[in-house]
Design brief:
About 45% of the residues lie in helices and about 15% in strands. By secondary structure, it is α/β, with parallel strands linked by helices. The protein has two domains: about 190 residues, 3-Layer(aba) Sandwich (Rossmann fold); about 160 residues, Rossmann fold (3-Layer(aba) Sandwich), CATH 3.40.50.2000. α11 links the parallel β9 and β10. Uridine-diphosphate-N-acetylglucosamine binds next to α1, α2, α5 and α11.
Length: about 375
Amino acid sequence: MSQGSQTALTGPVMCIVGARPNFMKMAPILRALAAHQPPLASLLVHTGQHYDQGMSHQLFEDLGLPRPEINLEVGSGSHAVQTAEVMRRFEPALDEHKPSCVLVVGDVNSTLACTLVAVKKGVPVAHVEAGLRSWDRKMPEEINRVLTDQVADRLYTTERSAADNLLREGVAAERVCFAGNVMIDSLLANRDKARSAADTLRAHGADPALLGHPAGYAVVTMHRPSNVDDAVTLRSLLEVLREVSTRLPLVFALHPRTRSNIDRFGLGGLTDPARMVMLPPQGYLEMVGLMAGATMVLTDSGGLQEETTALGVPCLTMRENTERPITVEQGTNTMVGRDPAAILQGVTDILEGTGKRGRVPELWDGRAAERIAADLWHWLRAGAA
Ligand code: UD1
């Protein structure tokens, strides 16, 4: 067991991470379980859904995550293969370690796979970041969210609308606990350690002078299959981003899926190295530094919508929907879809100072993990019923 000493509970809290967006959610939870009085023992399992240096190892280091006790090393594959492999390899680990409960975060394939294995064996499951809905069943993450929430036992939410979604789907109110946003716990804990954008560019051989543009710079990330797997869509997005780059320089942090599709579809010519810096996936401290110094962020990521809201940096989300509506209602997020005119208008509004200001949502205060640990303790003591 990695964290804390023996508790009155029968076994450790088995904490699951699989893909990049899980790591920043789990780091504060592990710390809070250990800091709880009495401590809750934990055991970290990495499914290996994300496995390379940029997508996984660097983030473990940045976030101070302990080395996982168990690595299932599933790697890439179709959704079916990836989900099935996690299930197949997780089952013996679960049998061996007899946890008090399994704790999953977010909406990736590993989240659903481990939940299914555990609930069918009668092991209680807690889901952190429950109840978010995009209402878009074409997103693999939406399927993972809906199914995980249906069968998990304890559901921790990040915003109040999530509880409404869960109740509408027939979930009993007693299973839901509004805890706040653990991703923002990580952001606040690491903000002062963030690497400056200039250092990050320098480290990749790019000229930091670019950041001194009178309009500042924009950070871009995209990796959603709906945006990057289709050549026509990806071309159109790159064309509009090229247009945006005539107004302010762009710093991309390229997901491997996007990188390989740009090459596969022969779209490399649409990037202009003088105004568009193409970086590989970034570490956490690099990403926070890049975002914090940016004039705006253009993205299709779920996490970045929340992080920009917490940082007060305007965000244009290149998707038709969001499962994180509070970032639009209260934060700095504007949905611009994939329509070039809407994207360019969003950029204009921000550059002209008429973009959103936003405020930080309720319980995005850096203490969500602490609240989760406290609730988990009481819930497990009460028999996880
Ligand atoms: C996954 C999650 C998504 C999350 C995203 C963040 C699901 C359904 N999706 O999508 O919710 O927002 O991670 O990154 O779980 N690859 C590498 N190195 C790696 C990992 C992946 O090169 O370390 C490549 C794979 O070979 C694959 C592509 O990246 O071609 C996509 O990886 P995959 O894990 O299938 O899904 P993501 O698109 O990353």
